[in-house]
């Protein structure tokens, strides 16, 4: 296995700068466009119609608002293939925020109004669903609680397993790196204008485990090298050596996982499976940033913290 000689700690400002730059871009998008929550979290209803030909999003929004007397969000998906790939259709998804469900009469009235505007489109209801707002808020709170509990358990696990190399500080640095990954996934949803839904929570929980696994591999090598190189070895040398020894493994694992998820994304995009693409795209970003944070964020921050503690001890003795 090839051993690299990359100065991860010495180049930490470059790595931190890259992450902060991407986060700044995501924050700008967030300020401009805001955060969209799916009806799974806010409550509301969704109707999806299939149609042929061409329609305009602005026209559909006005027609539905005039008919249903509610604010709506319209998304148009063109050239959606059936599961067997034999038929290609266009879909329009109409989302209503609020407490009232969409009745059959409402659906028929909307379809009739759309048909009057586009008589050759052949609108047909493909899917209809509704979520109570209180249930949506409860589901969102439970999802956030799941992420918080998972994070706490991860800190405790790292603290106990790596107590010989400063377990609690190692756990905290690992969680900071995981928070970095969560923000990257969040900004992916914001930049690509995807509403936060259960796919966001699924991606976050998956990345928490995936990224931490990579970090634990590095910590395990740090612990082993501490024993081999001796306690007087500087933390910067110890961490640089450990990361370089596991760097190839990290790249291969991330590359293989990324390729697999990219294949899923392509299939979902070809067949117009929005539920698949909204999971696969952020997951691809999460795999890349998870590998990056484990190698370029957690390790250098761990060295900075250990150096800080060593300086404090030296000042206390002086």
CATH architecture of the largest domain: Up-down Bundle
Using the coordinates above, name the CATH class of the largest domain: Mainly Alpha
- Number of structural domains: 2
Instruction: Give the distance, in angstroms, between the N- and C-terminal Cα atoms.
Output: 45 Å
Q: What overall form do the CA principal axes indicate?
A: elongated
Helix-strand sequence: HHEHEEHEHHHHH
Structural class: alpha+beta
Main sheet record: 4 strands, antiparallel
Indicate the CATH topology of the largest domain: Multidrug efflux transporter AcrB transmembrane fold
Overall pLDDT: 84
Number of extended strands: 4
Helix content: 55-70%
Q: Kindly report the spatial arrangement of strands forming the biggest sheet.
A: 2-3-1-4
**Continuous helix count:** 9
Q: Enumerate the spans where pLDDT stays under 50 for 5 or more consecutive residues.
A: none
- Percentage beta strand: 5-15%
Q: Radius of gyration over alpha carbons? A: 25 Å
CATH-level-4 superfamily name of the largest domain: Multidrug efflux transporter AcrB transmembrane domain
């Amino acid at each position: 296995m090839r051993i690299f000689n990359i100065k991860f700690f010495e180049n930490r400002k470059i790595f931190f700068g890259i992450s902060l730059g991407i986060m700044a871009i995501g924050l700008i998008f967030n300020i401009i466009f805001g955060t969209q929550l799916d009806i799974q979290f806010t409550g509301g209803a969704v109707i999806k119609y299939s149609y042929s030909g061409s329609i305009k999003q602005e026209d559909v929004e006005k027609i539905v608002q005039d008919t249903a007397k509610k604010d709506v969000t319209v998304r148009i998906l063109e050239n959606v293939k059936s599961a067997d790939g034999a038929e290609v259709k266009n879909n329009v998804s109409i989302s209503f925020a609020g407490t009232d469900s969409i009745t059959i009469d409402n659906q028929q009235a909307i379809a009739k109004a759309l048909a009057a505007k586009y008589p050759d489109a052949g609108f047909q209801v493909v899917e209809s669903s509704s979520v109570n707002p209180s249930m949506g808020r409860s589901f969102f709170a439970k999802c956030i609680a799941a992420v918080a509990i998972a994070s706490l358990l991860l800190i405790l696990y790292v603290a106990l397993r790596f107590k010989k190399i400063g377990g609690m500080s190692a756990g905290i640095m690992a969680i900071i790196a995981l928070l970095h990954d969560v923000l990257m996934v969040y900004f992916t949803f914001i930049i690509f204008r995807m509403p936060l839904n259960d796919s966001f929570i699924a991606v976050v929980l998956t990345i928490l485990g995936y990224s931490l696994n990579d970090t634990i591999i590095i910590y395990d090598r740090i612990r082993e090298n501490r024993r081999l190189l001796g306690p007087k070895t500087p933390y910067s040398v110890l961490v640089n050596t450990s990361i370089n020894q596991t760097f190839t493994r990290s790249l291969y694992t991330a590359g293989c996982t990324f390729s697999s998820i990219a294949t899923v994304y392509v299939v979902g995009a070809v067949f117009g499976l929005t539920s698949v693409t909204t999971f696969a795209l952020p997951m691809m970003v999460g795999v890349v940033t998870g590998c990056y944070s484990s190698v370029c964020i957690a390790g250098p921050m761990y060295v900075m913290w250990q150096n800080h503690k060593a300086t404090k001890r030296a000042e206390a003795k002086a």
